[in-house]
Amino acid sequence: MNHQDVPPKPGTPPTSGLPQVPAAQAPDHGRAHGHAPAQGPAPASVTWSQPRPQAERGPSRKLPATTRRTLWKALFAVVLLAVIAGLVWLALWLNSSPGSSGDDDGAAGVLETTAAPRATPLPLPRDGVQPADYALGDCFADFDPEALASRLVPCDTGHSAQLVAVFRYPESEDYPGAEALKAKALEACQAARLGPAANEYQLNYQRSFPSSTSWESGDRRVDCYVTASGGNVIKASVLP
Prior knowledge:
Blueprint: H1 29-32, H2 65-95, E1 110-112, E2 126-129, E3 139-141, E4 150-153, E5 161-168, H3 178-191, E6 204-208, H4 212-216, E7 221-227
Antiparallel strand pairs: 1-5, 2-4, 3-4, 3-5, 5-7, 6-7
């Protein structure tokens, strides 16, 4: 090769043949390719957002210890009263079940099914006791419900009947009639509360109620007895 035919390399690119373009008219090729145009020097720091001022909180309302104790005591008292009221209501509801008082016919009255000790205990045995003086739980020897007097004996000795339920009409009540009195006596027998001893004997219910004549004389009670047809064979109280 003839080295003289190869021109020497220039030291700097030739610029004499290139057109000169002012800087202000240069096209913005950088933005088209996604590059931001040149900017001036970045600031030393940039604050993008300011923190939001927190709402001023008022002073904490903490109740004193004595006030808290008072409130707890008041709450406990309310709960205790509610429990007591519930127990009282339950007791009244239980006592209002058959065996306390009531009348399906609309007549006011009192039904007795729980024997209470006599205010003045009678010496027993005792003869000539009249029906108006019979008390719930009394036991009778040789009992006749139509008799004007009966013989009272201790319930742990032989007897043939025991008074187990009593319904008392008010003094102001008008005579309701024999059928209404029979029905009321049946209700009294159905409401009677018997104890375990009643299962040891063959017993029947027997009713007694006033006639129109005895009603006019002040007799307002309807009685229910348990009786034994075999005579004085019962030797224990049949009430609980």
